[in-house]
């Protein structure tokens, strides 16, 4: 089955939705040749001329990278410089470029979750909360004899789900009054006469994504021409759909040296830079791939005794306060992107029976050596 770029974009949104990305970021399509059939996909960490050539040789016309090619505002395209050269090569070969940067950092199954999983962290919380799905209270007034039917319709459409509980509603009984005018077609009562009806106000919490479906279900079974429905957004509960960085508890308190040895093994790297007392032991750590040294203080406030990231600036080391910092390299903390994204994409393609070849480029070593 042929798959177009537009169809592929819908699939890519399931893995790391662009709405999860930071405002300053440029996740999503950097180069897009619309309506073309996908011939193959290559996944990489960075867009490089040799990777574009590799994609062409393997018959791929969609390149997916972690780091955007067009990151900051581009004022000119110079084919002799890095960005311009890559854009020219992509255009000449008809290769589209999609970037999953902070969208993949923040995704529930993204880079930081993978890093946290390697340490089996529990009691997790995001260092910086991302996109939150709010809940709404939907309330409707209905004649008592129709209450069960309306209540079942509401809960079947998704209302009344709180944690491990379902069909949670609150019911207030009272009397409703109304007077139909000459144009009305009342279910109960007569034109021009005041009517009093025994009614119940049924209310239930509903997630933002289910709200429209619940409202349609209520209107479909409600006996009144114009049912009285109110929708109010709640402050609690709310569900975090994404977030940057993770703080969590180790399975047991460990010496810092042991945590760092494990880190090197996980990342398959020879060295990490550390600031702080490495003779201590820690129970709670923070972790965030890439350049996240500015998250150290926020991680400390959430109880982290050790913060691991890929890149830390001089002033961030200087501002360190009662927390051990470990700098494991931008490349090494994010190279897991390629395999994680490949697995997520393959699952999505399998779910819709799309048969497209996916390649992961041979990972280069970091641009600097120690």
Describe the structure.
This protein has helices at residues 5-15, 49-57, 82-93, 102-106, 111-118, 147-156, 211-221, 256-267, 296-301, 314-318, 330-334, 337-351, and strands spanning 28-31, 41-44, 62-65, 96-99, 122-129, 132-143, 170-178, 195-207, 229-240, 243-255, 273-275, 281-288, 306-309, 324-327, 358-360. It is an alpha/beta fold and 370 residues long. The protein has 3 domains: 5-102 and 336-360, 3-Layer(aba) Sandwich (Udp-n-acetylmuramoylalanyl-d-glutamate--2,6- Diaminopimelate Ligase, Chain: A, domain 1), CATH 3.40.1390.30; 111-130 and 243-328, NIF3 (NGG1p interacting factor 3)-like (Udp-n-acetylmuramoylalanyl-d-glutamate--2,6- Diaminopimelate Ligase, Chain: A, domain 1, 3-Layer(aba) Sandwich), CATH 3.40.1390.30; 132-240, 2-Layer Sandwich (Alpha-Beta Plaits), CATH 3.30.70.120. The strands form 3 sheets. It has a 6-stranded mixed β-sheet with strand order 5-10-12-13-14-11. Strands 1-4-3-2-15 form a 5-stranded mixed β-sheet, with helices on both faces. Helix 10 (314-318) links the parallel strand 13 and strand 14. Helix 2 packs parallel to helix 3 (82-93). 35% of the residues are buried. It comes from Christensenella massiliensis.
């Amino acid at each position: 089955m042929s798959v177009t770029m537009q169809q592929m974009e819908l699939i890519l949104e399931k893995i790391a939705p662009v709405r999860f990305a930071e405002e300053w970021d440029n996740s999503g399509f950097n180069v897009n040749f619309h309506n073309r059939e996908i011939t193959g996909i290559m996944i990489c960490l960075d867009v490089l001329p040799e990777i574009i050539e590799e994609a062409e040789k393997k018959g791929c016309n969609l390149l997916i990278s972690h780091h955007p090619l067009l990151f900051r505002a581009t004022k000119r395209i110079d084919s002799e410089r890095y960005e311009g050269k890559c854009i020219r090569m992509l255009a000449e070969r008809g290769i589209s470029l999609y970037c999953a940067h902070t969208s993949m950092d923040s995704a529930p199954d993204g880079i930081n979750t993978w890093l946290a999983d390697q340490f089996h962290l529990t009691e997790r919380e995001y260092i910086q909360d991302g996109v939150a799905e709010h809940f709404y209270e939907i309330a409707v007034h209905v004649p008592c004899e129709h209450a069960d039917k309306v209540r079942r319709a509401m809960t079947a459409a998704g209302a009344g789900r709180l944690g491990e509980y379902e069909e949670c509603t609150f019911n207030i009984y009272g009397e409703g009054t109304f007077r139909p005018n000459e144009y009305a077609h009342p279910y109960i009562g007569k034109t021009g006469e005041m009517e009093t009806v025994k009614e119940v106000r049924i209310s239930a919490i509903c997630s933002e994504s289910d709200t429209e479906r619940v409202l349609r279900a209520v209107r479909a079974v409600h006996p009144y021409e114009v049912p009285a429905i109110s929708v109010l957004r709640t402050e609690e509960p709310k569900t975090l759909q994404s977030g940057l960085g993770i703080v969590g508890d180790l399975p047991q308190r460990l010496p810092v040296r042991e945590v760092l040895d494990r880190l090197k093994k996980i990342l398959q790297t020879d060295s990490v830079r550390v600031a702080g007392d490495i003779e201590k032991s820690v129970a709670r750590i923070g972790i965030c791939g890439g350049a996240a040294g500015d998250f150290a203080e926020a991680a400390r406030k959430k109880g982290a005794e050790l913060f691991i990231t890929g890149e830390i600036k001089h002033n961030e080391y200087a501002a360190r306060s009662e927390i051990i910092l470990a700098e494991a390299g931008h490349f090494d903390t994010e190279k897991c992107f390629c395999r994680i994204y490949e697995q997520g994409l393959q699952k999505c393609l399998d779910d819709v029976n799309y048969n497209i070849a996916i390649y992961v480029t041979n990972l280069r070593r970091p641009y600097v050596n120690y």
